[in-house]
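Loading example: each entry is read as three labelled lines plus one structure line.
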Amino acid sequence: MQLLIEAIGFGIASGAVIALGAVGFSVQFGMSNVLNITYGSLMTLGAYIGLVLTDRGVNVWISLAIAGVVVGAVSVGFHRWLLAPLVRRGTRAFAIVIVTVSAGVVLQYVIVAFAGPDAKSYGEQSGQTFYLLGVVLTASQVAIIVLAAVLMLGLHLLLTRTTLGRAMRATASNRVLAQSCGIATDRISDIAWMLSGMLCGAAGVALAITTVSFDFTLGPIFLIPMIAAAVLGGIGQPYGAMLGGLVVGIASELAAAYTNPAYREVVAFGILVVMLLVRPNGLFGAAWATRRLMA
Amino acid sequence: MGGWEYYLIVLLVYLGTDLLAAWGLNLEFGVTGVANLAYIVTIAAGAYTYAICTLGPPAATGNFQQYVGGFYLPFPVAVLAGVLAGAVVGILIGLTGLKRLRQDYQAIAMLVVSLMAATVVMADTPFLNGNAGLGLIPAPFSDQDPEIQRWLYVGIVAVACVVGYLLLRRFTTGPIGRTLRAVRDDEYAAAAIGKDIVVLRLVVQAAGGALGGASGALLAAFIGGWSPGAWAYVETLALLTAVIVGGMGSDRGVSIGTFVIAILVLQGVQFLPQISFRIGLREDLGWIVLGTVTILFIWFRPQGILPERRPKYGGSS
Amino acid sequence: MGIHRLRLASPLALATAFVLAACGGSGASSTPPTQTGPLSLGVIAPFTGPAAEFGTLLTAPCLAATDLINANGGVSGHQVNCTSIDDTGDPADAVPNVTKAIATTSNFDFAIGLESNTAATTVPLVNGAKIPFFTTNGLVAFTKNTYPYYYRMTPGDDANGAAFAVWAVQQGYKSVAIVFQNNIGSEGNLPGLTSAMPRLGGSIALNLTIPADSASYSAEVERVIAAKPDVLIWSADPQTTATFMGNYKSLNNGVLPPMVTATDSLTPDFFNAVTKVVGIAYVTSKIWLVGSYFDQTTPAFSTYKAALLADSKTHDIAPVLSTVGPPAGAYDGINIMALAMIMAKTTVGSYYNSYILQVVSPKSGAVVVNNFADGAKALAAGKQIQYIGVLGKPTFDKYHNSAGEFDANKFNSDGSATQVGTISGSQVLQLLG
């Protein structure tokens, strides 16, 4: 029983990080219907920006915020100047995915060319350890869970209570119709990519904190669980992505505890493959799977 | 044997096996439209199967590596076993792709399948020696003079390429080729005129997988070793770039693309001067160039160097 | 194709090497051939990929040795250059890289490196090209080596594993938890360790293999904690170690078990990664690094260390590196090969290879030398020499392996290490038999 509760605890902690990344991914996918594989390397970029800052003594949470802003800006540029033009030209969905995979590889190896392949770390971040109801969590894990929850809530409020949010949802659901209502869809698109890019950068830093020691392959490794969570919860549904993150995290930790720990990732992989093949709309999603690409 | 001669042999063998792989991928993706990013698993299946067929039981070399099998089979049988393994894996992968999915979803699902396969192999050490991979894999003609043996091997690879190319043409030209392209371009129309999509797809997956299995088996025999690093997911990207750069769907185009990517780019960066403070920079540069080339081609020339020739039909157009 | 963009020392040297390599195997002719121009010493190691650190670590002894050789007029007048050859840790990439290097490197007459991940594929290539080499791999497969150009002065992994057991028991630990990464270098230690432990009266509470570079090892850590070991016998790369120990600290109230690992972990990457995560107190007091022993008070060692400090490229890692066995073995190997070249009056591998064992064999009336300069001078004066280097007196068996004694080290606060105890080589061998 102890093992079960502990595994669930670890699962919640890792699930929070996965949820953070999954939500950003989900927003990007929902907005432009592009499976952005570069997201993984962009998280790595966030992690390394955070490293540069924390090594200079900047507080880790401020570094997280700065990394988020930088990656947000890079994401906007990436979408505007590479992805959007390709989509407008009618490039097929598969070719777009290949472009994002390639861009991810390029970014990854540029990072390693500058930073080197050796293991990096932010240092001792764990802080105090809390024991709640048999669940073991460190202070920074708790902080990340709180951060993830706050950001999800913020995103939800943005999407449902503000004009901007309504404009974003309209653009995501039917771009042409939104344009005819006078919504500046290009700008809305940029804002959506900025916000999701910020989540991406924040997720990268959160990942770096959680994994204690990392290298340039950090982002791509975590991308799959995040896509699994995003697909599980339904593309474009932030709450779904959060729930998906928890499910993926807990399932992975349970697998690690009860079978070979090396199969931790296989669980996330399996969830994604099954979801894509059986129910690509996710548990809560609308029929995103058959929509056309939108720039 | 001179150093240059041996290097040439290495390049020829690598080119030959890469061609087989690229043709298989082109058959599945370029001609039939299956976004098979798990193609590399068929190559790995061929390589590992060859290895466990030709190696003896693990105890024979003091158990320094663990694996299933170990049958001391001769070279031709083992290669055929590798080819078969590739075909079977190809069909299995094909079964997952039968459901009609968006191509990019299918691509991601395939990519994840290949990652899963790699993780399982690495985690389960008694199966195929896990992360360390298999080594001391026997090559044919090892009792001959090394110089003769190596050129003989180049010959074997060349023969395999000829056979593979003939197989490929069988699928990509003529009535089967037209049917496949019809399925790729508009599946519903093809089904409407009575083509059995499912069977055709699976046959193509088997053929593509067979080519991949052959590629893996021949390469493993030459190198003498095979490890998970050889089929990491970036290797799929290299193959895919070759197909895209060369011209999807075009056999000759893909051949040119393979030469450009596998030999000129990935081997070419080895000839750049070394930077002393960052030795590995040349390899990193190779991947950066690869990724950039892919993006540039999709941007500027998505049809590739030598595009597929669209058949012209007589009449008004 | 890019072939034409080569940097060759001189086309003549390449042509000569090509011709010589081509007809080198056709039996010894009476006059040994002469090469012109500088010699290339290949450092065949990973410079990219997960084990990329080893490339840099093996380049250091090359630089130290060649600095001294070149300052002393080179080998029979030839200067020596270190050439990096990336074996990437993956056999499929190692083969073209090494073949290309053999083809294009002028006067490629000796080599060091060839570590465990790719040794099975690269050793035959280098041996087939008749290039003598001193390797640092520990693969058990080479314990009964038959390649004539192969020499090894580092112990096999099985011997290393047994040495771990001896040290743990010597320190009074009874129950051990074995946690190894699932790579070939680490797993090679296992058989020696698992057979030695019970024979020494100890017990194995847990034997776990972990994947590399995982995001979290919480499940594995819980299993180790539950096994309540006295000591952790460990082998994994820096990143894996840092994450694992970080998780352990969080999950076990900040208490970490003592650790016995190999001197392979005596590297800046390991020290920095682990210290950053668990703090310097643990790293300097509770980690033992077991590996090849050598006396650090000998003149041979002082020369070696001074050379490392003098070269600006190796100055910073000199304090750490000078205390690790395999690079020291590579340094000795280079000196031995260079002296063999002088003895043979030729720099071509297929000719001087038979002199290598003569350089270190005890002979009456031989001058004992412990560095290249003294050896070269003695040979020039017509004397016989016996080289005893940093690793002490080599004792090559008929498989060209020279194992030795073992020792245990602890980290200092600057990342270098100090020896804290010795482990008898014969006891280790006995445990393996």
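Chain B is about 65% helix and 0% strand.
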